[in-house]
Design goal:
Helix content: 40-55%
Number of strands: 9
Pfam family, one: Glycos_transf_2
CATH topology of the largest domain: Spore Coat Polysaccharide Biosynthesis Protein SpsA, Chain A
Radius of gyration: 20 Å
Protein name: Glycosyltransferase family 2 protein
Distance between the termini: 57 Å
Number of helices: 11
GO molecular function: glycosyltransferase activity
Shape: globular
Largest sheet: 9 strands, mixed
EC number: 2.4.-.-
CATH architecture of the largest domain: Alpha-Beta Complex
InterPro entries: Glyco_trans_2-like, Nucleotide-diphossugar_trans
């Protein structure tokens, strides 16, 4: 089984070498490293050139993380594909241990949790939970998938049903869309034992930043609209995500108009505006009650 690691990079030159080296040092017999540089203006491209034929480099104009996922997938040849942000790293042994899980389990995707401690090393025994929430997703439910980009992997057949995805230059439609789509399309596993290091730093585009609060509603709305547009069975989930995003940014008096503007011409049809507005109102009121407001 050949593995492909798709690294997406934009101006993370100071982290890029440790990231790539963490993959190249993996003890697995058949894998490739595909690095997509999304129009970096720092020293990233010089660093990539120094690796020569050890990696496959894809240079492109800046188009955002989703466009990098698309470009990496198009260039990769593996049977199982891993995503990795250029400021993160794989812990020793990750590729072999995830490959073993795919070999012994009938799964389409595998997500491993991350650690923010760079010195961590995984224990001998991994805690693996098989995961099949396809019916929950069809009913509009939200399964818990608390794993960032760098902990995601997929069989090629599954990822080909998800990518290419719609693109945006900002962090709007990215790993949330991929995770929900994967959980809807196939059976998976979650490795509760971290096999990936997630670096928290001042230049994070989303995690741990002040932008997260304002980006979160936009991410919810964009993800909901795209999931409903792409997959008929995710209409209910899509409406719920859109309603949640509207509820976080809109006053009760404006919910109906905002819902109409958001779903107009989209995947739900005109009749969905009232339903989405009511869902948003319930979510907003629920949030207010939980905060002890009236």
């Amino acid at each position: 089984m050949k593995l492909s690691v798709l690294i997406n990079n934009f101006n993370y030159g100071r982290f890029l070498r440790p990231c790539i080296d963490s993959v190249l040092s993996q003890a697995y017999p058949d894998f490739e490293v595909v690095v997509v540089d999304d129009g970096s203006t720092d020293d990233s491209q010089e660093i990539l050139a120094s690796y020569g034929e050890q990696i496959l480099t894809v240079l492109k104009e800046n188009g955002g993380q989703a466009s990098s996922f698309n470009a990496g997938f198009a260039a990769a040849s593996g049977d199982v594909l891993f995503l990795l942000d250029a400021d993160d790293a794989f812990l020793p042994g990750k590729l072999a241990r995830i490959a073993e899980i795919y070999d012994r389990s009938e799964i389409d995707w595998c997500f491993d949790r991350v650690t923010t401690e760079e010195s961590d090393r995984p224990p001998t025994e991994l805690q693996v939970t098989l995961f099949d929430k396809r019916d929950t997703l069809r009913r509009g439910g939200f399964p818990s998938l608390p794993v960032p980009t760098s902990g995601l992997s997929f069989r090629r057949d599954l990822l080909s049903q998800i990518l290419p995805m719609s693109v945006a230059k900002d962090v709007v439609l990215s790993d949330n869309y991929i995770k929900f789509a994967a959980a809807y399309l196939g059976r998976g596993a979650i490795v509760e034992t971290p096999l990936t290091f997630q670096r928290i730093h001042e230049s994070n585009r989303y995690t741990g930043t002040s932008r997260a609060k304002t980006l979160r509603p936009r991410i919810m709305i964009a993800t909901g609209l795209e999931l409903a547009r792409r997959y008929d069975g995710l209409q209910a989930l899509g409406k719920s995500l859109v309603a949640g995003g509207i509820a976080e940014t809109t006053s009760l008096l404006k919910l109906r108009g905002e819902a109409r503007n958001t779903v107009a011409g989209g995947p739900f049809g005109d009749a969905a505006a009232t339903e989405v507005a009511l869902m948003a109102a319930r979510k907003r009121l629920g949030n207010m009650l939980r905060r002890g407001q009236s």
